[in-house]
């Protein structure tokens, strides 16, 4: 009797913040669909640095990249792997320059810091 290989689901939970939801609600439907498609690819644990990669020179901030209709859409995010594997998105924006604006990186790092501080306080309760 042949044994069937065990299929393990290696999905990663991606949490879309309220800011990301708000950003997505302002976009054309087709752009929103493509961004969600790319996020779902990452959630399915597909490795593709064209759509999800670490931003150099940051406090472990990552970037979802979507190009649709010659517009560069970005969602910034960070990992939380303490209890399970999570990607927490911070916010979204349309990228208009070659480099990711420092203002956007600083905002993502601030959200990340606040997230882990709140999480630590809640664990002490």
Outline the structure in words.
It is built from 3 helices and 5 strands. Strands 1-5-4-3-2 form a 5-stranded mixed beta sheet. It is α+β, with helices and mostly antiparallel strands and 125 residues long. It starts with 12 loop residues before the first strand and ends with a helix.
How are the SSEs ordered, and which strands pair?
Elements (H helix, E strand, L loop, with lengths): L12 E3 L2 H8 L3 H15 L8 E3 L7 E7 L2 E10 L5 E10 L6 H23 L1
Parallel strand pairs: 1-5
Antiparallel strand pairs: 2-3, 3-4, 4-5
List keywords for this structure.
single chain, 125 residues, alpha+beta, YaeB-like fold, 3 helices
User: How does the overall form come out from the CA principal axes?
Assistant: globular
Let me know the average pLDDT.
91
Low-pLDDT segments, ≥5 res: none
Beta content comes to 25-35%
CATH class bucket: Alpha Beta
Instruction: Give the H and E element order.
Output: EHHEEEEH
**Computed CA radius of gyration, to the nearest angstrom:** 16 Å
Per DSSP, the total helix count is 3
Structural class: alpha+beta
For the sheet with most strands, the description reads:
5 strands, mixed
How many structural units, i.e. domains? 1
| DSSP strand count | 5
N- to C-terminal distance: 52 Å
Q: Any idea what the CATH superfamily is called?
A: RelE-like
